[in-house]
Amino acid sequence: MDAKNKLNLKTIYSYTRGYRKFIALSAAATVVRVLAGFTTPQVISFTVDSIIDDVPYKLISPLMKLISMAGGREGLRQNLWLCAAFVIAIAIIASLSDFVGRISIAKATEGTVKTIRNKLFEHIQKLPYSWHIKNQTGDIIQRSTSDVEVLRNFISTQLSEMFRTIMLVAISLALMFPMNLKLTLMVLVFVPVVILYSSIFYGILSKKFLVADEAEGALFTATQENLTGVRVVRAFGREKYEIEKFSERNLKFSDLWVKLGYQLGYYWGIGDLVTGLMVMTIVVAGTYQAVNNVITLGEFLVFVSYTSMIAWPLRSFGRILGELSKTKVSAQRICEILSEPEESETPEAVEPDMNKDIEYKNVTFKYDGSVPVLDDVSFKIKAGTTFAVLGGTGSGKTTLMHLLNRLYDLPEDSGSITIGGVDIRKIKREYLRKNIGMVLQEPFLFSRSIKDNITIVNENATIDDVKEATSIAHVDEAIEEFSKGYDTIVGERGVTLSGGQKQRVSIARMLLQKTPIMVFDDSLSAVDAETDAKIREALKKDKKDSTIILISHRITTLMQADIILVLDKGRVADMGTHDELIERDGIYKEVFNVQMNLSDVD
Ligand SMILES: Nc1ncnc2c1ncn2[C@@H]1O[C@H](COP(=O)(O)OP(=O)(O)OP(=O)(O)O)[C@@H](O)[C@H]1O
């Protein structure tokens, strides 16, 4: 095992803290169950040899005492039911320990897995935005569910099975050795053969299982994409193509499983043959020895029972060894997430007044690529004013806002962003984000009621507060038209809001947050020009003390701003009021002319 795997399993082991007593209890119950299992053949052997027949007792003194209390050999011969009752008592002990073992391992497993799930979710919440952008949602979900499930299966089933098998083999060999060396050695030869056979075969099979899993994933993706993109499928008449694509993947999936069925057939069949051979060898050799009086009939029965008892667990031991690699991979995938560094906060982070001027000074920024997205950008936003940013697609407008609320941190030597003279890298992230309200171009609403979606930012808000916010966002009338009004559920199982309605509900949500800085990142794009103007008018009246940052492609949205910044390929191309910019021959004037002419045509 390499150091990395060791570390992963160590991390997983650390989450069993608090539940280890249950693991120990389950192990103890397993030992009792195994011992009880071995005792039954011993009782039968004793009954056959020393009660029904006359073979001398080979028992320890407490048991001898017990026999004399029961009337010795004769007494027991007359009352054979006592032996049967003893076997039943052992069976009761075995089932009780089975019960305790199952409950304890369930508690240990569920407790540990619950801790891992909570830890993962909590950690994911604290990982930087850049990590979320880089990693696919499907992959994160799979690691948090399927991989955790593999670990769950390992702790609940495989771990206890491994322990039980080791106990079974060790105790059976320890009991068989003193009885007959030759027969025990014969069993001993088969032990590694059975384990090796099933681990190698299962190792090969598990690779095929993986291919079948991937084929299932492809089938799932085809269905999911089809359902998500149903509008595109219908609009372009792609149903036939989609059906063909699905059938092809479906066929591949079922073919793989048929092939796997054959291979599983070989696996189980040959496995049965190998273990059957083991039991048969003992039966033949045991019969020979019993006939020649080397062992008693009772001992012969014990050997056959013990060999049959360990045959199946030995096979599953091999299978578990084969599956262990799957557990290691899952543990590694989970630990990869857990070892990602969380967003850190310096202890001296501050919470300054946010109703102050915002200043970008020589800001240069690049994402992972080598080309800067922002290049030496400097500007100042006066507190309480409306500041607008105009720029073509990909010019870096959203990046400016990503940096403002520290979704990405500006590296030390790449300029600075300050609020009231305080560098934002020194401001507490949570405080900063709570004071900068953001409405995005494609807002996200949860599958809850409209009211719950809005009050998410302020749980103490009253329905009057909500109505005030929706009235400023000009969405109150639309909401009241729904039969359930503010209690209307939105999302997959509820009402579908139009793009513009969604944008306006998220504007209302942001307004309720009552932040000194408000950012509208292209968030009026799906609203008609008239409503856009009304919303801005209402905002101006109601939020006159707040600093408003408007990002838009639409000149009419921006033209009344106090200052307009024109961004071109990550650089400041121009800055000024609408009247100033319209006087200069620049991008702003060009865009203005194009948009105004288009409006005329309309
Ligand atoms: N998370 C990211 N990782 C890497 N590159 C990114 C990331 N986000 C944006 N970019 C790149 O940075 C550049 C600027 O993107 P940005 O979203 O800031 O532009 P924008 O002006 O807001 O564009 P639009 O008007 O189309 O929304 C683009 O080239 C984009 O591909």
Note the topology.
Blueprint (H helix, E strand, L loop, with lengths): L2 H12 L5 H33 L8 H9 L2 H7 L2 H46 L2 H6 L2 H8 L1 H34 L1 H48 L1 H6 L3 H53 L5 H42 L19 E8 L8 E8 L4 E6 L5 H8 L11 E4 L2 E2 L5 H7 E4 L10 H6 L7 H10 L3 H6 L17 H14 L4 E5 L7 H14 L4 E5 L3 H4 L4 E6 L2 E6 L1 H6 L3 H15 L1
Parallel strand pairs: 3-8, 3-9, 6-7, 7-8
Antiparallel strand pairs: 1-2, 1-4, 4-5, 9-10
Helix pairs in contact: 1-12, 2-5, 2-8, 2-12, 5-8, 8-9, 8-12, 9-11, 9-12, 11-12, 16-18
Q: Which terms would index this structure?
A:
single chain; 602 residues; alpha/beta; ABC transporter transmembrane region fold; Rossmann fold
Explain this structure to me?
The protein is an alpha/beta fold and 602 residues long. It has 2 domains: 336 residues, Up-down Bundle (ABC transporter transmembrane region fold), CATH 1.20.1560.10; 244 residues, Rossmann fold, CATH 3.40.50. Helix content is 65%, strand content 9%. The strands form 2 sheets. A 6-stranded mixed beta sheet has the order 6-7-8-3-9-10, sandwiched between helices. Strand 1 and strand 2 form a beta hairpin. Helix 5 runs antiparallel to helix 8 and helix 8 runs antiparallel to helix 9. The longest helix has 53 residues. It starts with a helix and ends with a helix. The mean pLDDT is 86. Bound molecules: adenosine-5'-triphosphate. Keywords: ATP-binding, Cell membrane, Membrane, Nucleotide-binding, Transmembrane, Transmembrane helix, Transport. It comes from Sedimentibacter saalensis. This is ATP-binding cassette subfamily B protein. GO terms for molecular function: ABC-type oligopeptide transporter activity; ATP binding; ATP hydrolysis activity. It is a multi-pass membrane protein.
